[in-house]
Amino acid sequence: MLVMVAGLLLALAASNLIHLRDRDRFARQMNIDHYVERVSAAVRVLDQERGARRADILKVMQTPLFRVQPVDALPAPEDIRFTDSPQSRPVEARLKERLGREAVIFRIAPLPRRGDWPPAGDHGQRRLRPAPSGFVTFVGLVDGSVIRLTSRAPGSTTSWPARLLMTLAVVLLASLLLAALAVRFVVRPLRSVAAQAEQIGRDLQTPAMSETGPTEVRQVARAMNSMQEKIRQLFEQRSRFLAAVSHDLRTPITRLRLRAELVDDESLRVRMTRDLDEMGRMVQETLEFIRDESSREPMRKVDLNALLEALVEDVSEQVEDVAYEPIERTVVRCRPPALRRALGNLLVNAARHGDHVTLRARIDGGSVVVEVIDDGPGIPEGELERVFEPFYRLDKARGDGGAGLGLSIARAVAESHGGTLTLANRGGGGICARFEWPGGMPD
After folding, report:
1. Residues 6+ away with beta carbon under 8 Å from 417
2. How far, in Å, CA of 310 to CA of 324, rounded?
3. pLDDT score, position 275
4. Can you tell me the distance from the alpha carbon of 234 to that of 230, in angstroms, rounded to the nearest whole number?
5. What is the DSSP letter of 326?
6. Are 306 and 361 within 8 A, CB to CB?
7. CA distances from 403 to 20, 406, 431 (A)
C-alpha cells in the first residue's frame, strides 16, 4: 500500500511538473510574440513622426511594463553587458524580418527593480541591482535616430498554484480511496484463507472453504480443501491402525491375566498382574487418545459448576485430597464428555506428583479458564512443552503407570474447543495447568 501511494505521488508530481514546464514555455513564447507586435507597432508609428510630435508619442507609449526611450546610437555588441544567448537570436531575426531593416539588436537581460530604468545614453554599463529579466531592443529608425524598447518579462509559471495543489489533493484522495477498496477486495479472500488454515490447524473437521471469488482465490481454496481432505484421510488411517492394534491387544492381555492367576508364586503373580494392569491402562489411554482426535461431538451448553463438582466426585478414588470452591451457576459451551476426560486426566496427573490438588474456575471475558494446581516438585522449564508429546514421560514418572498420553489427550481436547492448555511452574513449588477455551457465554 505504501509503495503504491509513493508511486502515485511520484507520478502525479512528475506529470504536473511537465505540465507546468510546458505552460511556462508556451507563456514565454506568447509574451515574446506580443512583444514583437508591440515593438513593430511602436517603430511604425515613430518612423512617421518627427520632432515634438515624436516626443509626445514617446510619452504616451510609456507604461509600467513597457518603456520606449531615445538613445544616441546603436551600441556595439561588446559594449553591451546583456547576454547574447541562443534564446535571443531567433527573436532578433524575427524583429529584423518584421521591421524590414538590419539596425536591430535584441537581448534578454536583467532589469532594475522599483522602476529605476536606465537613462538615455546608458547602454547597460551602469551597475544595477539584480532584478527580473526583461526584453531590450535597440532599433534604428528611418531618420537615423535610435530608440531603446524595454519590456519586463513575466515571471516563471512553474510555481505550484493553489488551485493545482487542491486538484492534486482531490486526485490523490480519490486514488487512495479506490486503491484502498481494491486492496480490501483482494486481501479479504486471503484473510479467509489464513483463517481457514489456522482453523484447520486446530480442528481437522472444520467445514471446507467456499471456492468462490477471483480465479486465483478459487485455486487457493481448492488446494486448501484438497490438502485438508488428504490430512484428514491420513489421520483417519493412522487412527484406524492404532485402534485396531490397541483393541486386538485386549484379548491376549486378558488371557495373560487369567494365566497369571494360576501362578503359585504369589510375589511373581503380583508383579505379573501389575505389569498387565499397566499394559491395560496403556491400551485404554491409546484408545481414548484416538477417540478424542476423531471426535465429532457437537458443542452444547452445560452448567460448568455442576460438571466440575461431578468430576471431583468421579475421581475421588484416584485423587484423595482435592479442593474445589464452587462458583456461581454459569452456563458455558463445551463438549462435556471430552472436557470431563481432559480435566480428569489433569487431576489424576496432579495427584500423582503432589499431595494436594486445587481445582478452580472462572469466566474471563468471553473465555472460560479452569486451573488444576498441585504442590509437587514441578517440571524443568525445558520439559514443559515436551510432556504434551504422545507417549513422552519424564524419567521420574515412568514407574507411575500409564502410556504418557494423559496430557496429549487433554491438549487435543483443548484445541478441539478452540482453546489452549499450558503448564507453568509456580513460585512456591508445583505446577499450574491452565485449560482455557472461548466458551464463556452466560445463559
Report:
1. 299, 334, 335, 338, 339, 437, 438, 439
2. 11
3. 82
4. 6
5. P
6. no
7. 81, 8, 20
Which one-letter amino acid corresponds to residue 278?
Answer: E
- Look up residue 398 and give its amino acid: R
The residues that bridge with 302 in the sheet, in sequence order, are: 332
Query: What DSSP letter does each residue of 28-81 carry, written as one string?
Result: HHHHHHHHHHHHHHHHHHHHT--HHHHHHHHHHH-BTTEEEEEESSPPPGGG--
Task: Give residue 41's identity as a one-letter amino acid code.
Answer: A
**pLDDT at 121 > cutoff 50:** no
> How many other C-beta atoms lie within 10 A of the C-beta of residue 242?
15
Neighbour count for residue 373 (Cβ, 10 Å): 19
| Amino acid at site 211 | E
Higher pLDDT, 209 or 121: 209
Arithmetic mean of pLDDT, 338-365: 87
Please tell us whether the domain made up of 298-437 is placed in CATH 3.40.50.800: no
Instruction: Tell me: pLDDT of 115 over 50.
Output: no
Lowest mean pLDDT among 114-123, 156-165, 300-309, 398-407: 114-123
Grid cell, residue 419, equals: 482453546
Burial-class residue 411 by CB neighbours within 10 Å (0-12, 13-18, 19+).
Answer: buried
Sequence spans of domains, the chain:
2-152, 298-437
Answer whether 68's CB lies under 8 Å from 58's CB: yes
DSSP 153-191: PPPPS-S--HHHHHHHHHHHHHHHHHHHHHHHHHHHHHH
What is the spatial distance between Cα 87 and Cα 75, in angstroms, rounded to a whole number?
A: 20
